[in-house]
Amino acid sequence: MPFAVGVIETYGFPAMLAVADAMVKAGRVTIVKYEQADSGRQFVCIRGPVSEVNRAVEAGLIAGSDLPNEGCVTTHYIVPNPPENLEAVLPIDFTEASEEFWIEEIRGNRFPGF
Fold it and tell me: Which residues lie below 8 Å from residue 26, measured CB to CB, with a gap of 6+?
């Protein structure tokens, strides 16, 4: 089963927190990465089944656009079926750090050693 990648970039930590919270509550997805830059831009990356990532990103966009003050969503993107090369080079793969929160489809299927 291919696991889609969904990424939302925000301006400000509260916006990123609202987006991440909405995404994990809206679908069976796992947060695999988040980063912040000195400029105030931040992104959160999720993985899961395509339909779940689509639903989660939609919920994240709604939550991120409904914020007071300066926080906002700056951009977003979904990759429905990322190739192995993309997973090997970019920080979008499931890691041991997020193992506790993996969706059930991941356990035993992708990482037999875990």
Answer: 55, 56, 58, 59, 60
Q: What is the per-residue pLDDT across 26-64, written as a single tens digit (0 to 9) for each?
A: 999 989 889 988 888 999 999 999 999 999 999 999 999
Are the C-beta atoms of 63 and 18 separated by less than 8 Å? Answer: yes
What is the reported pTM?
A: 0.81
Under 8 Å CB-to-CB from 64, ≥6 apart: which residues?
A: 8, 10, 15, 18, 19, 22, 71, 72, 73
Question: How far is 114 from 111, CA to CA, in rounded Å?
Answer: 6
The pair of three-digit structure tokens given for residue 98, joined into one six-digit string = 């997020």
